[in-house]
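Ticket #4471: complex job returned nothing on first submit. Input attached below:
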Amino acid sequence: DAGVTQSPTHLIKTRGQHVTLRCSPISGHKSVSWYQQVLGQGPQFIFQYYEKEERGRGNFPDRFSARQFPNYSSELNVNALLLGDSALYLCASSLGAAYTDTQYFGPGTRLTVL
Amino acid sequence: GDSVTQMEGPVTLSEEAFLTINCTYTATGYPSLFWYVQYPGEGLQLLLKATKADDKGSNKGFEATYRKETTSFHLEKGSVQVSDSAVYFCARDSSYKLIFGSGTRLLVRP
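Support reply: We reran it on our side without changes. The output follows.
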């Protein structure tokens, strides 16, 4: 079975632009979470979606938004990009939204903001 | 709030050496504990997990035991290989999310 897939792999944007990152979960998984990993640090939680509803949000500004589609895929949107948004953005899927459900990560999208 | 602390790297070892990477966590609630590995240019892969006190997670020769009394989940391997070179992240769950440590880079020399 295919794992979590993300697109694009790499992305270069300039300050002030908008970006959309995409994620497809493992087949059968209904929950998607997004994490930001700045170089040299551990991933930081951004959002969790389950059954198309936001179940949790991390400490990120309103410039960050996300949604989940009926097929459980998800998009992460970031508006008004800042240099500090440069990072690896990781998507993780799990069967459900229970804290006991193991999260499986995709390869990530590396965003560079110039 | 909840947090995870792990030893800073890099950890440099010769092939076949014994590995320990220390990890401690805040003791709020009854968290599950995880070790993830990140190879260069890739995302995170789940290495092992433990869901309750005294559980031992194991995979690919790596082991970690959930120690509630010391709030620790140290990663060990008896004989490392060059292919184990990667960044290792300790994590705990907290409601709907994972909280990660800052990562420990392991370099294994032939």
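Residues 91 and 99 of chain B are 5 Å apart (CA to CA). Closing as resolved unless it happens again.
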